[in-house]
Each structure stands twice: as structure tokens, then as C-alpha cells.
From TrEMBL, chain A:
Keyword annotations of the record: Cell membrane, Electron transport, Heme, Iron, Membrane, Metal-binding, Transmembrane, Transmembrane helix, Transport
Organism: Pedobacter segetis
Cellular localization per UniProt: Cell membrane
Pfam family, one: Cyt_bd_oxida_I
Bilayer disposition of the protein: Multi-pass membrane protein
Transmembrane segments: 15-39, 59-80, 100-116, 123-149, 181-204, 216-233, 318-340, 352-374, 402-423
InterPro entries reported for this sequence: Cyt-d_ubiquinol_oxidase_su_1
Keyword Heme tagged: yes
Protein name: Cytochrome ubiquinol oxidase subunit I
Family: Belongs to the cytochrome ubiquinol oxidase subunit 1 family.
Broad class of where this protein is predominantly found: membrane
Keyword Protein transport: no
Lineage: superkingdom: Bacteria
TrEMBL record, chain B:
Signal peptide interval: none
Keyword Metal-binding among UniProt keywords: no
Pfam families, per database record: Cyt_bd_oxida_II (PF02322)
The name this protein goes by in its record: Cytochrome d ubiquinol oxidase subunit II
Keywords: Cell membrane, Membrane, Transmembrane, Transmembrane helix
Membrane topology qualifier: Multi-pass membrane protein
InterPro entries per the UniProt record, alphabetical: Cyt-d_oxidase_su2 (IPR003317)
Main location per the UniProt record: membrane
TM annotation in the entry: 6-32, 53-74, 80-99, 119-140, 160-182, 202-219, 231-252, 259-277, 306-327
Organism, scientific name: Pedobacter segetis
Family label: Belongs to the cytochrome ubiquinol oxidase subunit 2 family.
Subcellular localization: Cell membrane
Length: 438, 338
């Protein structure tokens, strides 16, 4: 493994790891705020127990999110010093605001986790809400930095120099809105489905049914609402990508030839050598509609992009297909759940609906990872789109593969321990949170 | 505005050293506690740092963000030439943060606790050790941006006696800070006496390690003596620190725990002042004799302004909340939260 590939793999590993914990860190506080609110309003202790049970899980995820985030803020320099040297002052604004948001989050979390029975109950509830709001805010801010890498703004690049730097213009770059919207909704969808799935499994196993049914409902409502919004916001993203990053869109769709009324390609195996896609379903004109809002519009294909500026096509294409497919499945489950809630109450008691949720447990997170692969791999070979190539940004230090192996081992062990602890949390519900076990 | 940013940078480093240091120190104390008292030490300690540990470590993030936004060259030079200790420190941070949380939140208390404890105490030692090594290597004139082989460029830039002794000194300071901080949190006399003894031990250890740093600096031909005693600020700060050590040693049998904390904090502040004053505004001294200076490496004036405003606005939100957090969990209450 050469150093460049090692550095990219380590970055991808670290971000792919962190994103899971940060999604949970952003979203779980809202679930807890709801159940905490229900407890304060109804005095039903089971809601208090749900809040407490969740907050233990969240504390674990938070710690892992915080340390992996700390690692990231160093890794940007450890792996990409040439990038940070120039980009730091330009896209640093969201990071410095994010610092504040993190800090507030960490403080509020201290109050929330350790504040039971110590403070006024509504103050205590409010600190939980602050944890969620500042977490979401920090997610939105950090995405601004990533969006800047896709649509660089706030500087002029003249003769290899970065001049006229305007950090605010850089922060409010074009891609920020669509990416931040899509990411925030994704966090709700992924976390909602994951949590709902776990509680659904416990209901099916007939353990602490009342406890798990209440938890399930909170998570499922958040997750399904997000899952319905997700394809809509994905459509906004796709239109935006079509406009700002034609090479990425072409790779996502394995769209080799520039044409009018371009077909949407579903599935299939891109054959890069012969510039075609085998075994795919083609919906005529649909790509033109998705990218431009018009079935007849012309969509730039890879033939218009010089070879050395093309992203890896197969990976980007597969990742995009996976994300969209999972998005559609989740939306379908969401509709079934809404029908159950409003029209066919009897469905709620039936096993198949719960089983669907159990099967869907990991889907949201897989879609999140796939979506980030689309964004990051689809931007290659650029680290700053159109300005700096990724290979020019990498650290001169040799031997990065050892650091990659080391971090892989660490993250792998952490993942195992976290899953193990989560399993134990759930197993202990009857003893710790719900002694009645109806 | 550049000065506002520099003040924030210095304060963030100081606060990380004080608060993060006390936090690391808690683990170091546990490492050096004899077996029968371990679980008591652990309990007292957990009560003291549980609610604040996440916040304590945010100062490191703030430091890093200020560096990469405001002074990218300094950030990237460190990232490249002290890569290895930075990675080791990060591994320490990962291990420590997670082990601390896991041992408290694991729903089943079984043998895994022993594993978490081990990881926690050793990483509490390793992390500040490497922090000290990194700090020491920034001023040792061993970072060689022209080096042509791996060892000179990436290993001997930080591996030398000076930085190692600075690392040990940092560890000792952390233990000292933790002991002093926890004295005020203890709930009975026996505990209190134990922590006073620890504070004394670690204070002596810190002074001894400080001596080692001086010896190492002579050996490595680093003009530390001149930085400390060659200017009036250095001499004054050194004398004040010495006086405060003497005062502290006369307080052990009183109940002035807050005054003890102030004195300990004051000593650390003086140490940081001494070590940064003489070569201000340079923060990385390179082997070829040149230096990276805060005044010259500022990334971009407009960014510095924006950063300064962001820091000011941020601290308006953060500081009162942080003070209230620390205050709220200061006094042990009867209701200790599950
Ligand atoms: C629950 C997760 C999830 C689901 C169900 C979807 N997405 Fe997504 N998608 C993400 C999670 C995600 C993400 C991980 O959050 C990304 C990565 C970068 C970003 O901003 O969001 C993303 C990126 C992303 C991009 C690239 C944006 C860029 O590079 O700037 C596009 C075009 C889409 N998505 C489109 C869609 C469409 C049309 C979907 C239809 C169902 C869809 N996404 C479902
Ligand atoms: C603010 C957020 C982010 C920043 C600043 C960032 C930065 C970077 C950088 C510097 C690289 C290396 C250059 C490259 O290969 O493109 C990279 C690569 C990568 N990042 Fe991101 N990233 C962000 C968000 C994410 C997230 C959340 C993921 C989650 C999975 C992710 C996934 C990847 C992947 C998969 C690569 C490797 C690309 C390749 O190998 O071709 N990124 N990112
Ligand atoms: C798009 C990708 C990212 C998203 C959505 C995101 C979001 C979040 C969120 C919501 C948190 C707080 C929740 C938790 O601690 O579990 C968090 C923690 C953190 N993130 Fe990320 N992050 C991303 C990428 C990054 C990158 C690229 C960096 C570094 C440059 C970073 C640095 C941090 C740090 C330092 C923390 C710890 C803060 C704390 O102690 O609360 N994150 N992230």
C-alpha cells in the first residue's frame, strides 16, 4: 500500500467511523428530550426510565464521538498538511464556530447526564435540548467545511496563490445548504431507524414490551418522517451537483456520453473501457429530469471531462445506487408505518411491520456511509474541487500505512467494544430500567 | 485582532494544562495508588471529574482550531515533523476517553472493569507524557525542515532527553494538580489525608523532574537557563512561583482548599509564562536557527479578525456556562447521581 492510498484510507476510515457517532450524538438528544418531556408532563415513570436508559447509551456514543472527532482535527494536518496550509485560513470559519458549538454541547451534556434531581427539572430538561441543538449546529457547521471542498468560494486562485481571502464567503459556499440539509435529515433517518429496529426486536422477543413499545414509537416517528423527506432533499442535492459538479454527477450515474433526454440508469455494471453500462434498467429522460428538472435537457457526460479529472466511476456509481435504493426502501417502510398509525391501527400489532423495522436497522447508516463515498470519491481527483489535487496535498512523511493499520485496529476494537456494551445495556433493561417486565 | 487571537491561544493552552492536566492527573494518581485504596480513590475521583471531563478536553480542540485557522504554517509544520508523538498522543486520548466512559457506563460490572481500569490509568500517563514531549520539541531546535533521511526528519525532531524530561515534568504536574483539586472534594478526614500526601509527593516529583529538565537542557545545549534567568520576567515569575510553593507547604493542615488550588494554578501559570515569554512571538524554533513566529505566520488578516470575533462571541456563551458547571458539581451533595 503506498503512502497516498494509505492516507486516503485512513481519512476515510476515521471519517466513516466518526460520522456514525456524530449522527447519534446529534439525534439521540432529541429523542431523549421527547421522552423526558413526556415524563415531566405525564409523570409516567417508564418515560423517565427510557430517558435514563438512552442517556447511558448516548454517553458511550458521545465519548467515542468526541475522541474520534479530536483525532480528526489533528488528522487533517497529519495527513493533508499542504491542503491545510492553504485551506485552513479559508474554510476555518465554520470550524472556529463549531468549536463553540462543541463546547456548549459538552457543558450541557455534563449538566444533563449528572443533573438528575439536582436542578430544577425544567432547567435539567432544557440542558438536554441544548445538547441536541448544539450538536445539530456543529454538524451543520462542519458540513460547511466539506461543502467548501466541493464548491470552493471566498478566495481567488491566481498563479498558485490564494488571495483575497474572505472567510465568510467561504463559509456560505454554494453547496452548504443542500449538503447540510441532506446530512441533517440523514442523521435523523439513520438514527431513528437504528434505534427503532433495536426496540422492535425486543418487542418481538416479548421482553419488557411496554417499555420497548414506547421507545420504539418515539424513534420510529422521527425516523420515518426523516425518511420521507430524505429523497426530496436528495433531489435538491442531485440538481445542485448536476449544476456545480458535472463530473461527480456523471460518475454517480455512470453517464458516459453527453446527451439530451439522458436516461436514468438503475443498477448495472459500469464498463469503463467500453464506456457503457451493462445489465442496467434505463428510464428514458429521467436523468435529465433529475439533474435539470426537464426531461429534454442535455446532461454532461464523462466524455466531456478530461481523463485526468475523472473520479473513480464504478465506486461512485455503486455507492450512489446503494444510497438511493436504501432511501427508497426506508421511504416505503415509512409509508407503511404512517398507514398503520392513521388508518390501520391493527397493523401496529402485527409482526410483519416490526420485522420490517428490525431488518431496516442498519440501512440508514449504510446509506450515510454510501452517501459520503459519493461525495468524497466523486470529488476526486480534487481535494479542493478544481483547485488542488488530492495527491498534491498528502504529507511527505513515509510509512503512513503503519499508521493506517494502527488506526484500523483501534477503531475496529472500539467498534467491537461499543457493540458489546450496547448489547449489555439492552440485556440489563429488565434489571435496571423496567423491573415489571410485563 | 491578532493579539486577541494570541491571548486566546495562550489561555486555551493554559486552561488545557490546568483543567485537562488535573483530569489526566486523576488517572495518574490512580496508577500510583496502592491496591487497597484504589477503589476509594477511583470513587472520589469520578465524582470530581465525571461531569467536567468532556469540557476539560475541549481546550485542546480550541487550541488546534486556532492554530490551523490562524497560523496554518505552524500547525502543518508540527503535523509533519512531530507526526509520530502526535499520533501516540491521539491514541492515548482515544484510549483514555473511551475507557473512562466505558467503565462507568458498562451496564454489567464484571472483569471488564479491570481491563478498562488498566487502559485508563496507563493512557492517563502516556497522553500527558507525549503532550510534554511535543511541547518540548517545539523549542528544542531539533525540528529540521531540510533533513534528508527519515530518522532526522521524523524521529530525532522529538526524541531527545530534553523533550523526554519535559514529558515527565508534565506528568508530574498533572498528578500534582489532580491531587490538589481533589483535596477539596474529599468527604472525610482519612481521604483528605491521603490526597494531601499525594499532593506533597507529586509536588516533590514535579520539582525533581523540573531539575531533570534543566540537566537535560544543559546536555542538549538548549539555553533554558538563559530563558528563565536571563530576563526580569523570567526571574520574577520563577521567584513568585517559588514563594507560592513555600506558602502552599504551610497550608497542608488548614482547610483553605481553594487557596491551595489557586496557588497550584498560579505555579503552573508562571511556568507557562516563563517558558513562552523569552521566545515570544516564536513558537517553533527550527534547527537551522530560524523560527516560526506568531506575528509572521498569521494566515490572513481577514481570517484573523473573523476568528477573533468568533472566539470572543464563543467565550460569552461558554465561560458563564462552564463556570456554572464546575461550580454546580463542586460540593459533594448527598444525592450522588447514578
Ligand atoms: C439516511 C441516509 C441517506 C439516504 C436515505 C439518502 N442519502 Fe443522499 N446522502 C447522504 C445520506 C442519505 C449523506 C451521507 O448524508 C450525504 C453525503 C454528503 C451529504 O451532504 O449527504 C449524501 C449525499 C448525496 C448526494 C451528493 C451530494 C454532494 O456530493 O454534494 C446526492 C446527489 C444525494 N445524496 C442524493 C440522494 C437521493 C436522490 C436519495 C434518494 C433516496 C438519497 N440521497 C438518499
Ligand atoms: C467536514 C467534513 C469533511 C472533511 C473536511 C473531509 C476531508 C477529507 C479529506 C481531506 C480527504 C482526503 C482527500 C480525498 O481523498 O478526498 C477526504 C477523503 C475522504 N473522505 Fe472526507 N471529509 C469530510 C467529511 C467526510 C465524511 C463525514 C465522510 C464519511 C464517510 C467522508 C469520507 C471520505 C472518504 C470516503 C474519503 C476518501 C476518498 C477517496 O479515497 O477517494 N468525508 N475527506
Ligand atoms: C460531516 C461530517 C461531520 C459531522 C456531521 C460531525 C458532527 C459531529 C457532532 C454532531 C459531534 C458531537 C456529537 C458527539 O460528540 O458524538 C461531533 C464531535 C466532534 N467532531 Fe465531528 N462531525 C463531522 C466531521 C468532523 C471533522 C472533519 C472534524 C475535524 C476536523 C470533526 C471534529 C469533531 C470533534 C473535535 C468532536 C468532539 C467534540 C466534543 O467533544 O463534543 N468532526 N461531530
Amino acid at each position: 500500500m503506498n503512502d497516498f492510498i494509505a492516507a486516503r484510507s485512513q481519512m476515510a476510515l476515521s471519517l466513516g467511523f466518526h460520522i456514525i457517532f456524530s449522527c447519534i450524538g446529534m439525534v439521540m438528544p432529541f429523542f431523549m428530550a421527547v421522552s423526558h418531556y413526556l415524563y415531566l408532563k405525564t409523570n409516567d415513570v417508564s418515560y423517565k426510565n427510557i430517558t435514563k436508559a438512552w442517556s447511558k447509551g448516548v454517553a458511550i456514543f458521545f465519548a467515542v464521538g468526541a475522541v474520534s472527532g479530536t483525532v480528526l482535527s489533528f488528522e487533517l494536518g497529519l495527513l493533508w498538511p499542504k491542503f491545510m496550509e492553504h485551506a485552513g485560513p479559508i474554510f476555518g470559519m465554520p470550524f472556529s464556530l463549531e468549536g463553540t458549538a462543541f463546547f456548549i454541547e459538552a457543558i450541557a451534556l455534563g449538566f444533563f447526564l449528572y443533573g438528575w434531581d439536582r436542578f430544577n427539572k425544567w432547567f435539567h430538561w432544557f440542558t438536554g435540548v441544548i445538547v441536541g441543538v448544539s450538536g445539530l449546529l456543529s454538524g451543520v457547521l462542519v458540513v460547511a467545511a466539506n461543502a467548501w471542498m466541493n464548491t470552493p468560494a471566498g478566495f481567488d486562485y491566481v498563479d498558485g496563490k490564494y488571495i483575497n481571502i474572505d472567510p465568510l464567503a467561504a463559509m456560505f459556499n454554494d453547496a452548504w445548504f443542500s449538503q447540510a440539509l441532506h446530512m441533517s435529515i440523514a442523521a435523523f433517518a439513520a438514527t431513528g431507524f437504528a434505534v427503532a429496529g433495536i426496540h422492535a426486536l425486543m418487542i418481538l422477543r416479548k421482553q419488557n414490551v411496554a417499555f420497548h413499545a414506547k421507545s420504539f414509537k418515539i424513534a420510529a416517528v422521527f425516523g420515518t418522517i426523516a425518511a420521507v423527506m430524505q429523497p426530496l432533499s436528495g433531489d435538491i442535492s442531485a440538481k445542485f451537483v448536476g449544476k456545480s459538479q458535472p463530473a461527480k454527477l456523471a460518475a454517480m450515474e455512470a453517464h458516459f456520453h453527453t446527451e439530451k433526454s439522458a436516461p436514468l440508469i438503475i443498477g448495472g455494471i459500469p464498463d469503463v473501457k467500453n464506456q457503457k453500462v451493462d445489465y442496467a434498467i434505463k428510464i428514458p429522460g429521467a436523468l435529465s429530469f433529475m439533474a435539470k428538472g426537464n426531461f429534454k435537457a442535455e446532461v454532461t457526460g464523462l466524455d466531456q471531462i478530461p481523463k485526468e479529472n475523472q473520479p473513480p466511476i464504478a465506486i461512485t456509481h455503486y455507492a450512489f445506487q446503494i444510497m438511493v435504493a436504501l432511501g427508497m426502501i426506508m421511504m416505503g417502510i415509512a409509508f407503511a408505518y404512517f398507514i398503520a398509525l392513521f388508518k390501520k391501527k391493527s397493523w401496529l400489532k402485527q409482526q410483519w411491520l416490526l420485522k420490517l423495522f428490525v431488518l431496516a436497522t442498519p440501512l440508514g447508516f449504510i446509506a450515510v456511509e454510501a452517501g459520503w463515498v459519493v461525495t468524497e470519491v466523486g470529488r476526486q481527483p480534487w481535494i479542493i474541487n478544481g483547485v488542488m489535487r488530492t495527491k498534491d496535498a498528502v504529507t511527505p512523511m513515509p510509512g503512513i500505512q503503519y499508521s493506517f493499520y494502527l488506526f484500523s485496529a483501534v477503531y475496529f476494537s472500539l467498534a467491537v467494544i461499543v457493540v458489546f456494551m450496547l448489547y449489555r445495556q439492552i440485556k440489563m433493561v429488565p434489571q435496571l430500567y423496567d423491573k415489571t417486565n410485563p | 485582532m491578532l493579539y486577541v487571537v494570541m491571548i486566546f491561544l495562550w489561555m486555551a493552552i493554559l486552561l488545557y494544562l490546568l483543567l485537562g492536566g488535573a483530569d489526566f492527573g486523576a488517572g495518574i494518581l490512580e496508577l500510583f495508588t496502592s491496591y487497597p485504596n484504589k477503589s476509594k480513590t477511583r470513587k472520589t475521583m469520578y465524582r470530581a471529574i465525571g461531569p467536567v471531563w468532556e469540557a476539560n478536553h475541549m481546550w485542546l480542540i480550541i487550541t488546534i482550531v486556532i492554530l490551523f485557522v490562524g497560523f496554518p504554517n505552524i500547525y502543518t509544520t508540527m503535523s509533519v515533523y512531530v507526526h509520530i508523538p502526535l499520533v501516540l498522543m491521539l491514541l492515548g486520548i482515544i484510549a483514555r476517553g473511551t475507557a473512562f466512559t466505558f467503565r462507568h457506563y458498562d451496564a454489567v460490572k464484571d472483569d471488564m472493569q479491570k481491563v478498562y481500569n488498566k487502559i485508563f490509568v496507563y493512557s492517563s500517563f502516556i497522553t500527558p507524557l507525549f503532550l510534554g514531549i511535543i511541547a518540548g520539541s517545539t523549542v528544542a531546535r531539533r525540528i529540521d525542515t531540510e533533513a534528508s533521511n527519515f530518522l532526522d526528519a521524523y524521529v530525532f525532531s522529538w526524541l531527545h532527553w530534553f523533550s523526554i524530561t519535559v514529558g515527565l515534568f508534565t506528568v508530574a504536574i498533572c498528578g500534582f494538580l489532580a491531587a490538589i483539586f481533589i483535596i477539596g472534594q474529599t468527604e472525610n478526614l482519612e481521604e483528605r489525608i491521603r490526597f494531601i500526601r499525594k499532593a506533597k509527593t507529586f509536588n516533590i516529583a514535579a520539582i525533581l523532574c523540573g531539575g531533570l529538565v534543566f540537566l537535560a537542557s544543559l546536555y542538549e545545549k538548549i539555553p533554558l537557563l538563559d530563558w528563565v534567568f536571563g530576563n526580569s520576567v523570567g526571574i520574577t515569575a520563577f521567584s513568585l512561583a517559588t514563594v507560592s510553593v513555600v506558602i502552599l507547604w504551610n497550608l497542608w493542615n488548614t482547610d483553605k482548599t481553594n487557596l491551595m488550588r489557586v496557588l497550584a494554578g498560579f505555579q503552573i501559570t508562571m511556568i507557562l509564562l516563563i517558558t513562552t515569554w523569552k521566545h515570544y512571538p516564536n513558537i517553533i524554533l527550527l534547527k537551522n536557527g530560524s523560527s516560526l513566529s506568531l506575528l509572521e505566520e498569521q494566515g490572513n488578516a481577514k481570517t484573523i479578525d473573523a476568528l477573533a470575533w468568533a472566539l470572543i462571541a464563543g467565550s460569552i456563551f461558554i465561560l458563564p456556562a462552564l463556570v456554572y458547571l464546575i461550580y454546580s458539581f463542586q460540593k459533594p451533595k448527598e444525592k450522588i447521581i447514578s
